[in-house]
Write a structure and sequence with these properties.
The complex is a heterodimer of chains A (247) and B (264). Chain A has 247 residues and is mainly α. Chain A has 10 helices and no strands. In chain A, helix 8 packs antiparallel against helix 10. The radius of gyration of chain A is 24 Å and the shape is globular. Chain A starts with a helix and ends with a helix. Chain B is α/β, with parallel strands linked by helices. Chain B contains 11 helices and 10 strands. The chains are: A mainly alpha (247), B alpha/beta (264). Bound molecules: adenosine-5'-triphosphate and magnesium ion (MG).
């Protein structure tokens, strides 16, 4: 019975969305023809644009690599600051909130703001990725630090290991696989997300989708879409292989 | 000098007392004892008797206690960390093994060598032939030489305990402190591990002090039994002279602390 008001509210919300937005279901039916036209104009994909697409892809790759690198750099500092086991609550709490805030801002919004700040091209893309990825990566790094078990480190101490030896042989081996796995995971997300950065002018292959769609060259847009889809599947395959390796 | 180092006992405690801050009772209550070299001592007592605290004290890891303590001829002071060389001479086998789970068996045992080498050399991975020999020997002694490349988190409890013992042996300590080395093992494994630990120690002239909840098993492999209750030593006897009355007291002490407290 407790679920009833909730169900009612849900139904109301759906009805409200349907009637108040400027959506006409009949439009969906009549647009079948247009949709068919759109799809037929995408076929066959025009592969003559491959050189541009390739150039865009390489730029996307560079954005993802440099963005990840920047994020790794900043996350190392913020990760330490967000570690409960290293910092007092007065430090890690606000840092964690800041990271949560960063995570909640969509990448595309960050990218638009960066384009506004530094102009078109790959640079705003790199900055946007760096900013956006740090929200997640610094949190992961902090967790990797917090998950270090103190007992084995204490054991090394008891056996006569020096401070640096404890770091190298006690703390680092516990953290390294986690950090490597998380960084690779974040790189994969960065690569995937940076594919669309070009749509707002922040560099990479996404730029071509936007250009070709705006100029009604759907066959070229189709090529870009196919390439991106293939790439994402590829990234996913590589990623799951890597993830099996580190656990 | 040589004769002197030969002569000092492995451990001497004189009126050592300790109480955790805020605790109502003393963890250790005027404990005095001498443990000669090469002796294998079992420390029996119920949960909370102070076994772990005593072992931590001998390992230089207990703060704010009073009295005098000397381990391997060197003075141990409250809350003062032992020197690297001193720590390297004292091996400690932890109840929860305290191994690096993501590292290989080999690496974990190799870690036992850290206290004996320069920091720089170890950071660059320059372990000597002597280091590798000690690790190989230790792994052979605990019968794990076929699992050296295995990751530690893929081992059974008994195998992990043997890795922990091998790490301790690779350290080539003069004294081994083992905090309940068998409490995480099933009875069969427990006996095998205790047998292994005490026989290898005897073979290498190492003094051993291990704590346990199991008086019978402990008396089988120790030369001497110490029973701790409420921070006091209530039984201290060579295992060869244990009477059935002693055993009764030991059992009561290890299983029914409340009852004993009432009697006492
Ligand atoms: N860090 C601590 N702070 C306060 N009290 C402690 C601390 N560690 C142990 N104690 C208390 O001191 C007493 C002795 O503890 P200790 O761990 O030495 O006993 P134990 O004989 O090893 O017990 P067990 O068989 O359960 O391991 C116990 O009453 C315990 O609750
Ligand atoms: Mg204990």
């Amino acid at each position: 019975m407790r679920g009833f008001p909730l169900t009612l509210a849900l139904v109301a919300v759906v009805i409200w969305s349907g009637v108040s937005a400027d959506i006409d279901l009949s439009k969906l039916v009549s647009s079948g023809v247009r949709m068919g036209d759109f799809l037929s104009r995408m076929y066959p994909p025009n592969f003559s644009v491959w050189p541009e697409v390739q150039k865009g892809l390489l730029e996307t790759l560079r954005i993802a690599i440099l963005g990840t690198l920047g994020s790794v750099f900043i996350s190392t500092f913020l990760g330490v600051l967000a570690a409960q086991t290293l910092m007092p609550a007065a430090v890690y709490r606000p840092v964690r909130s800041l990271l949560a805030l960063i995570r909640s801002i969509p990448l595309i919004l960050v990218a638009m703001l960066m384009v506004g700040a530094v102009g078109l091209g790959p640079l705003p893309g790199i900055l946007a990725i760096t900013f956006h990825a740090t929200g997640m990566l610094a949190k992961f790094y902090a967790e990797a630090i917090d998950d270090v078990q103190p007992a084995p480190v204490l054991a090394l101490d008891s056996m006569g290991a020096s401070g640096l030896q404890r770091l190298k042989f006690g703390i680092w081996p516990q953290m390294a696989p986690v950090i490597l796995r998380d960084t690779i995971f974040r790189f994969e997300l960065n690569l995937r997300e940076s594919l669309v950065l070009g749509v707002v002018g922040a560099g990479g292959v996404g730029f071509y989708i936007q250009t070709y769609v705006r100029s009604f060259q759907y066959d070229k847009a189709a090529t870009v879409a196919i390439v991106i889809a293939v790439l994402i599947v590829l990234i996913e395959l590589i990623n799951s292989a890597i993830r099996r390796k580190f656990s | 000098m040589t004769t002197k180092t030969r002569q000092h006992p492995a451990v001497t405690l004189s009126s050592v007392s300790h109480q955790y801050s805020g605790a109502r009772q003393a963890t250790l209550d005027a404990v005095s004892l001498t443990i000669p070299k090469r002796e294998r001592v079992a420390l029996i007592g119920p949960s909370g008797a102070g076994k772990s605290s005593l072992l931590a004290l001998l390992d230089g890891r207990l703060a704010s206690w009073t009295g005098q303590a000397s381990v391997l001829g060197k003075t141990v002071l409250p809350g003062q960390k032992l020197s690297r060389a001193h720590r390297a001479d004292i091996g400690f086998v932890f109840q929860e093994f305290a191994l690096i789970e993501r590292a290989s068996v080999w690496q974990n045992v190799l870690n036992g060598r850290l206290g004996r080498m320069g920091t720089l050399a170890s950071l660059m991975g320059r372990f000597s032939v002597e280091d590798e020999r000690a690790v190989t020997q230790a792994l052979e002694d605990v019968d794990l030489i076929d699992l050296t490349e295995r990751r530690t988190d893929q081992l059974s409890g008994g195998q992990r305990q043997r890795v922990a013992i091998a790490r301790c042996l690779a350290q080539e300590p003069k004294l081994i402190l083992a905090d309940e080395p068998i409490s995480n093992l099933d009875p069969m494994r427990a006996e095998a591990v205790l047998q292994l630990l005490t026989s290898l120690a005897a073979k290498r002239d190492i003094t051993v002090i291990f704590s346990s909840h199991q008086p019978e098993l402990a008396s089988k492999f120790a030369d001497r039994i110490l029973s701790l209750a409420d921070g006091k030593i209530i039984v201290d006897r060579p295992t060869s002279e244990l009477t059935s009355l002693d055993m009764r007291v030991l059992y009561q002490a290890s299983e029914q602390p409340q009852l004993l407290r009432k009697i006492g």
